Amino acid sequence: MKNLNRKPEMGRRNGVIGLGLMPDHWPTTSNIINVSFPLPPQYPSTSTTPAPDEPKSQEEEISKGEEAVAQVRKEVDILEHQVFALQVVVNNGSKVDGKEISYLTEMLMMKLLKLDGIEAEGEGRAQRRMQVRRVQGIVEKLDLLKLRNSKL
């Protein structure tokens, strides 16, 4: 993926989260606030396929499903923190760039797809269902936030 930031040595992305838009090209009205978040850590891929001659035990399959759900939960925690930060800014009467809200919505939808691809049984399945509902609730909050932000 191509890095659109001007300076690769920057520890934070400036401006719109992940879109790499340059702050000097944005509107300069005083009521728009650009929120900067730390870069989330890169998560290693958890998808591994066993050799065809090695049968997977049911316990191994369950634990892998629970581990995958736990990994997505950590990623959603980071996104939820960013949503909360945007809520605080908008609730204080300041306008944020709509692209930030759209970016967070898109990232949460990607987490829903990731959860959908996890095969789990028993407790892992219940955890996955709980995380899907959690992500859907956060997306609904973002929709309301986007509406409130557009009225500012």
TrEMBL record:
Region of interest (Disordered), ranges: 37-67
Basic and acidic residues: bias regions: 53-67
Protein origin, superkingdom: Eukaryota
Domain BAG as annotated: residue spans: 68-146
Assigned keywords, A-Z: Chaperone
GO molecular function ontology, one term from the record: protein-folding chaperone binding
A Pfam family it matches: BAG
Protein's UniProt name: BAG domain-containing protein
Source organism: Erythranthe guttata (Yellow monkey flower)
